């Protein structure tokens, strides 16, 4: 089980055919890695070397992919079998035609000849794709290697062939990229025995040519011919010792040979572990706490679902957790919005997105709908919209009949006001729809981890919740319609804020008893002379707000469609023809007075109605919908689920865990157990290093 901690390890990096595999085999003291032409190592190979105390014990290997529980291996492999298994697993992970894989093969090697080390053999860097390799194989290989060498806990073994130009070294290029100061890079110089004549490795080994803080080491590996002739690792190490006994290596003897390299690597890894222990302990503690919290959130399986009392209590517990999370989101005590996520099962809506600091959530979004979106829509409504001077004059004269009206007729005022009040209905209903959408978004996005284990129960809870929200929304919609109808049902001209006729004529803007409303929408001077002047079409038209009032006596005469007096179609052609309409001259003083009265009074009353509906519509939505969701949802969901229709009469069906939930809980349990074992190992390592 991967505990997800950057553990100290040695990562072997080098170009293709640089001798990486031979270096690793020399360190292990056994011939176990695959050989061949081209890219043989095609996925990372993690080697965990364990020293056997008994020198007589046979060496063997174990693969984690062969274990039953991801920890204890079920089969022991000889070194020859290890080579075949590595080839088989590589083909399974990366395919049989030279492609690569980022998934590692984990191999534990037990031998009395090894030092306790953790090595990672990475694929050699290649530039030309072959087989199934993608065109950008070099970039992909470098990214794969960097996954292992970027962590500060890794020590890089940069393998470079001595018979190649140092400037072309792939290993040093990658090491410098992640370790520019050479603080955790060990240089390994291979093929020293086949260097060109005149070449001298001493400038590298002494750090003069390319200094590395951890130093350079020179080794001699078996050649391909030696391998074909069956030369053993033991014989190769003896030949290596004889080669470096030459006097020219006298001053750098401690930096030559596989034995010195292995000893240095063990020292470096031990010291690296010692330095990393405090950080590892802290990371392990945090990881264990997170895993414990996650495990607690998953809960324990309900062992006896047939126990009705236990099952009933558990379902109630899950419903309470869900409704508490929703209530917290709406009321502002927790997260909200479209990304509600409860990761701690505490009843609040934890988690959340990275943008929570700049994004309104839950109840705050409802307030934004009320105060910003809805009020903005209401402010856009002009009480004199689609009303022209011509239409008003015609309506006033039609209502007055044969007598000239001294003031605005009540019928005209009432008709105008009711038409404009009706414009307030749709914005209020639109506001309700936005609130419903937001509540549904919160309900659907809640992710109670314990509840998520039971897909059937969660689906039923969400279904009941959304159905109840829509039911409450229908009642709120009826309440909003009633509010508008109440305003339309009685035009209260005695309202203290209404600007009366006398106040309008006085021009002081004060109403009888309470002052006027907002008249910023304009008066006579802002009305177009004819409706066509407002909408860009000529003619007086008959489809405006007041067109129906003046249609019978508008210009041209609806009752005189042929343009003749009295509407008779059989009149004599000698009779004069008339057009019954208003004159085209400038407004008279009476006209101006009447229009001023009309616009002022309509605007004043409309502002009163708008204020009433703006306030009461929000209260209706809160009372009929939002408050009922926060106050009554739990009882309603419980009642619906426990009814024969809601629960199907079978609580057991609601508590069937999904396979995914079971797998997540088991994986979390395995991870928690691995973290606890790792903590114990760290304690033992700390004690051993102390002595």
Structure in words:
Helices cover 49% and strands 7% of the residues. The relative contact order is 0.09. The protein is of the alpha/beta class and 691 residues long.
Write the layout of secondary structure elements.
Layout: E1 9-14, H1 20-28, E2 45-51, E3 60-63, H2 79-94, E4 105-111, E5 118-121, H3 137-149, E6 154-161, H4 170-178, E7 185-190, H5 202-205, E8 216-218, H6 224-228, H7 233-244, H8 258-298, H9 308-331, H10 363-379, H11 389-400, H12 410-422, H13 425-445, H14 455-489, H15 501-506, H16 531-535, H17 547-550, H18 589-642, H19 644-647, H20 651-654, H21 659-690
Parallel strand pairs: 1-5, 1-6, 2-4, 6-7, 7-8
Antiparallel strand pairs: 2-5, 3-4
H/I helix tally: 21
Average pLDDT, all residues:
76
Please state how the strands of the largest beta sheet are arranged side by side.
3-4-2-5-1-6-7-8
Largest sheet: 8 strands, mixed
How large is the share of residues in beta strands?
Answer: 5-15%
Q: How many strand units?
A: 8
The run of helices and strands is EHEEHEEHEHEHEHHHHHHHHHHHHHHHH
Provide the low-confidence segments as ranges: 68-72, 335-355, 508-522, 528-573, 575-580, 645-649
- Estimate percent helicity: 40-55%
**Shape field:** elongated
Radius of gyration: 44 Å
How widely separated are the two ends? 30 Å
Structure classification: alpha/beta
